[in-house]
Design brief:
Elements lengths: L5 H21 L5 H17 L2 H4 L4 H18 L9 H7 L4 H17 L5 H4 L28 H11 L3 H4 L4 H13 L21
Helix pairs in contact: 1-2, 1-4, 2-4, 6-8, 6-10
């Protein structure tokens, strides 16, 4: 039940935001940086709330949020309704829904590793204990492979352990967040080379 509580509330607010943004491109000359600020205040705030956990809900629950997010970012740049969104996410430096969740989860791991997590988190997510004669990374968290469906005991430790060591070694909260976000966005493609025919690409089909 706790996993699904934020979803209907967030979904309705995102739909309202999409309707709110629709006239901006047609009637008002709103600068892109202002629309981007509106997005972070009214869209990402809902997508981010508690999604370290409920983002792993069934795809039938999560997909509507992902679709709405894509519609909203297309609207920000007045893109065609079926345009590819990855280049837009990259140009606006906005994280996709699944990457917002990833960032939030590794932030929780960062809090555990740097000893500022609340007890409700630190009592369950533990640093890995180095074992004699085993070559283990001291910057890792304990991961229980037998609990592969557990976000606390498997997903968060795995995502932290897979981070680049240079990111793990950052102790400042904001600096860590900014660097992880930059790392994720750097992997987005500025252009997508789609095989023809592709209705989303401005290509001539012969």
């Amino acid at each position: 039940m706790a996993c699904t509580l934020p979803l209907p509330y967030g979904l309705g607010n995102l739909r309202a935001l999409l309707i709110f943004l629709l006239p901006f491109n047609a009637v008002y000359n709103i600068p892109l940086n202002i629309k981007r600020l509106i997005y972070f205040a009214l869209c990402e705030s809902h997508l981010s709330y508690g999604n370290s956990f409920w983002s792993k809900a069934k795809q039938s629950i999560v997909n509507p949020l992902q679709i709405l997010q894509k519609k909203i970012v297309r609207n920000l740049v007045a893109a065609k309704y079926n345009s590819h969104t990855e280049p837009i996410f990259k140009s606006l430096e906005i994280l996709k829904f699944e990457d917002i969740a990833l960032l939030n989860r590794v932030k929780l791991a960062h809090a555990v590793f740097n000893n500022y997590a609340p007890p409700t988190i630190s009592n369950y997510i533990k640093k890995a204990t180095p074992q004699p004669r085993l070559r283990q990374n001291p910057n890792n968290l304990f991961l229980n492979p037998r609990l592969g469906n557990s976000i606390i005991f498997f997903t968060i430790p795995r995502e932290w352990n897979n981070l680049n060591e240079s990111l793990k070694n950052i102790t400042g909260k904001k600096l860590f967040k900014d660097n992880v976000k930059d790392s994720i966005i750097s992997k987005y493609k500025a252009e997508l080379n789609c095989p023809q025919p592709c209705r989303s690409c401005p290509q001539m089909i012969t």
